[in-house]
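Lecture notes, unit on protein representations.

Consider one protein chain, 296 amino acids long.
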Amino acid sequence: MDVKKNVRVGNRWIGPDFPVYVIGEIGINHNGNIEIARQLIETAARAGCDAVKFQKRTPALCVPPEQRNVMRETPWGYINYMEYRERVEFGFEEYQIIDQHCKKHGIQWFASCWDEPSVDFIEQFDPPCYKIQSAAVTDTALLTHLRETVKPMILSTGMSTMEQIREAVQLLDRETLILCHSTSTYPCPPEELNLRMIQTLHSEFDCPVGYSGHEVGLVPSAAAVALGACVVERHITLDRSMWGSDQSASVEPGGLEKLVKYIRTVEISAGDGVKRVYDSEKKVMQRLRRNSMSAA
């Protein structure tokens, strides 16, 4: 096994030698409701996902002062942005429920942390890894703090230049790093998905590379596997018409089940690239070929 190309996350290996690691990104699609979070965990486990991912923020640190008093319509009425951010954050009790529910359903969970105190908070639950959101690619302090956890990292690369990605990679442990190609548009039009970046990242960084998709539909996420994605992450929702900025670019339960099936079909179909005559072809060959060439 080439340890540089495979990374262990909990009880799973991620890399070209192993099945694609499928992540259901719950994010904040639970809208601050723990029952919705539980249903989304069950949805991901039933579909065959390997993990679910949440987002954790400290609103007092993450919400810019000029946005705090901006008013907006929400499921809780017409409130300011700061109050909204506080309402969608789960605390210790909710994450205990999440932790127990994921263990019950045999699925891993972890989070994207948007600030250092959020990393310390999630560390209480000993996650198998951390996901670094595209917005944090240039956040040197946060990347350094995350590395200090000595956990594997999955780094998304949306809205980043190659130089910014290189600098972020230098701050992290290459031996336990997984990169994810992504375009940070919600939803993302097909012409901006640029799936061949999966091959570009793998060629330069020689580490497992995945795909974090924000498109509408399932085809590009399955195609990413054919291009070498070892991880596929998609936002998931109970209903795309639910309130929330990420819902429209998310996958509903039925679509998630189809996507996991498509991913498994693509990875089996990819084969090993060695040309051979299969036993199933031999009778067809005898029936259809007039002449037989030397096997040599």
